Task: structure prediction
Amino acid sequence: MSKTIIISNRLPLQLKINDNSLEAIPSVGGLATGMKSVHRDGNGVWIGWTGLTEEEIPESMQDDVIKACRKEQCVPVTLDQEDIDGFYYGFSNRTIWPLFHYFMEYAEFERQNWKTYKQVNEKFAKVVLENIEEGDTVWVHDYQLMLLPELIKKERPDVRVGFFLHIPFPSYEVFRTLPWRKEILRGLLGSDLIGFHTYDYERHFLSSVSRILRLDVNFNEIMLGDRLVTVNSYPMGIDYDKFEKAALANKEQNSKEQSELQRRLDLHLDATPDAKMILSIDRLDYTKGIANRIRAYEYFLEKYPNYKEKVRLVMLAVPSRSNVPQYQKLKKEVDELVGRINGKFATVSWTPIWYFFRSMPFDNLIDLYTSCDIALLTPIRDGMNLVAKEYIATRTDKTGVLILSEMTGAALEMNEALLINPNNFEEIAETLKEAIEMPEEEQIKRNVQMQKRLKRYNVEKWASEFLEALKKTKEKTDLVKAIKIKKEQQQELMQAYQNAEKRILFLDYDGTLRSFVSDPANAKPDQEMLNLVNSIQAQKNTDVVIISGRDRDTLGKWWQEIPVTLIAEHGVWKRKTGEDWEITEKIKNDWMPQIRPILETYVDRTPGTFIEEKNYSLAWHYRNADPELGEIRANELSNVIKELASNKDLGVLDGNKVLEIKSGAVNKGKAVSKEIFNKNYSFIFSIGDDWTDEFMFEDLPETAYTVKVGMQKTAARFYVEDTAHVRQLLQEFAKN
Ligand code: GDG
Result:
């Protein structure tokens, strides 16, 4: 029976070594809950690190670790202290974490850490590959394992691989500063489906893929050889019922059942019923904007002194990554700020900030959520922020005000919260005032909406939607109807070639006989290609036609020595072997002086583009432009020309990163039709790579062997992957 393999840096359990025994205690984080139906209730397996390094586990207990994990349907990846230092504290938390949260000045680019990151990803891959069986699905989580999808796909192309990033994906301008940007993108593209919390992260990723790897991105799909990678956003939810139930139970508790914390909170609530409690919960992380939050609170108390003794900031900061210097610095800064503000404003009966620096049990978290009238969450950047969602879920009487930073993924789904810019103290102070004074009906109105949404799109739904989408990811072959030329098709083709009495081959040039280079003037055919074509044309009853959009001079010069027919400028010119160029169509070029200046303005406005001038056409090349800008401008230009051209019989050909403007009467389809008219060819072959070649594929008879270069939508019957395969095919023809 096929299973789902979940992979994350940490396993959802905690190992405890007591004297001689070992215990694995399951932890119940958001991810574990979301995965429950596939992991615990299904026959899923979770692969990850246990939290204990090799050095921390006595030799005699190594097997016990595996056994204890197995019991929880987990498989451990063994890591030593050096791995953890380079991979986790190093590359993950000193490079990727700051960079992806736009803290560029904190990002360290250490080669040794990158090396360890790669090695640890390989260690994960090894364990995953040992556990994969046919038909399994793999779901990889988060920024520590971005190389894993490719490592798995390489060995097991049959297995569906999904990846979800829990943190933001930064804009191209930030991402491109990473020395290993290509490796990271390629690693991720080993997936069939890549998920992000928001559409913004998704489009940042797609933009980096198209600009850095220069791959074709089609809406949210990436063409990668003969694979298709889908990218989409799935905002992660919470285990809503768990939080709601816990909050209801909290309300039912009598004083004996209450926690010490709840009793203390109640004491204050009873003593000062008018005072408001403001909650702040996060891991102590510089991305969470904790220091700014305290400063903004100070500013609020200064601006509105009448609220002194009427508000209290309850701040829980959970210790995190304390081995990383920035976290130690932040701890010091927060300690000092809290001390200073409490010292400055406190009275005998009032402390403005209650500060807890520790992790609390779940029940205490619920005590805090349910007791506080306002939640103030001000991250500078946050992939999602689940605390915001949890706060709203615990407000079972529907009161409470959420103040939330616009820079969190959650803000996009929680429009009814009071959204603030975490860098704007003035706005935070005003919003705090607004929250304190907000009438209950309004609080309820806002929360009802948010609760409805959070209950519906909970963490289980999130996980099942992702896995459903992963199952449905399209094979590229579903989209492309042409058949790949493999051994069998090649044999059929060669058979037909040999049996034919009279044959003709139409060969496109750029992108077919020659791969693209940045300057088209440097794309001369190499000697091997010249020899190949020469030996084919020399065969009995065989005509070879090089058919190109190139100008006649270049084409003529490059193929001077080879006695083949040349068709230039998409069919305007033709040169039979040993003869002069002749014009095949009566066409005009008097439109050029009008159109050229328009193209020139596009060259000026789009760096990297240039105009190629031919006798009867003008081509605007944008291969070297920024890919996104290039596409936008090409679209614009195409529309402009089409509008102008309607009464001039001009056509716009959309080639491979080139727009060609020419007389509407000419195209390669017409040219090949003329070539075969009344000639009784029993074998017709045509091969080409772009839209201009589609005219030949469409106009040739159905029995012709039409071949597209590259796996794309086409009217051709067959396709080959790239120019190397074209060469291989020509070598087969040449053998006859
Ligand atoms: C990353 C992304 C994204 C907190 N203190 C205690 C405690 N918590 C629990 C909360 C919440 C979770 O930890 C924190 O989740 P966040 O989403 O707020 O933040 P990160 O830890 O930074 O998580 C983030 C998330 O991944 C999921 O994709 O939303 O953007 O940075 O569930 O309840 N739990 C207990 N005691 C505490 O003291 N028991």
